Amino acid sequence: QVQLVESGGGLVQPGGSLRLSCVASGFVVRVKNMGWYRRAPGKQREFVAAISTLDNTKYADSVQGRFAISRDDAKNTVYLQMNSLNLEDTAVYYCTNHENNWGQGTQVTVSS
Q1: In sequence order, what are the beta bridge partners of 95?
Q2: If pLDDT is split at 50, 70 and 90, which confidence band does 50 have?
Q3: What pLDDT sits at residue 110?
Q4: Burial 45-76 (b: 16+ CB within 10 A, else e)
Q5: CA angle, 85 as apex, 81 and 87 as ends, to 5°?
Q6: Contacts 24+ apart (CB under 8 A), 79-82
Q7: Would you place residue 43 in the very low, low, confident or very high pLDDT band (cuts 50, 70, 90)?
Q8: Cα-flanking dihedrals φ and ψ of residue 78, to 5°?
Q9: What whole-number distance in Å separates Cα of residue 68 and Cα of residue 29?
Q10: d(Cα 105, Cα 85) in Å, to the nearest integer?
Q11: What is the pLDDT of residues 66-109, one digit of tens each?
């Protein structure tokens, strides 16, 4: 059974950092194109970052240079390192394997 479990969200001040984790089970993250998306209050879910099976990465313009997606094969986990957070980064962040499997999400709140 495919399962994705996100963690690492929380409350952070503007300019702060967080690292989100997505632990996968039921499949191997190395052989999937993995991604992070987010849904801000009152908005649709949007793309944040992705990492391919060849470790190519792609980012939304709004997070380019601030966020970094990575993968730990030994832990079957995908990470999203988020730096220089701003108020507009407040959202629920979701992990996906791009096969219609999603985690439950983890809340990130940026507030002073």
Answers
A1: 36
A2: very high
A3: 98
A4: beebbbbeeeeeeebeeebeeebbbebeeeeb
A5: 140
A6: 79/19, 79/20, 79/21, 79/22, 80/19, 80/20, 80/22, 80/36, 80/48, 80/49, 81/17, 81/19, 82/17, 82/18, 82/19, 82/20, 82/108
A7: very high
A8: -115, 140
A9: 17
A10: 18
A11: 999 999 999 999 999 999 999 999 999 999 998 989 999 999 99
pLDDT at 31: 93
Question: Which residue is it, tokens 């709004």?
Answer: 62
Residue 104 corresponds to which amino acid? Answer: Q
Residue 72, both tokens: 């730990």
Q: What DSSP assignment string belongs to the chain?
A: --EEEEE--EEE-TT--EEEEEEEESS-GGGS-EEEEEE-TTS--EEEEEE-TT--EEE-TTTTTTEEEEEETTTTEEEEEE-S--GGG-EEEEEE-SSS-B---EEEEE--
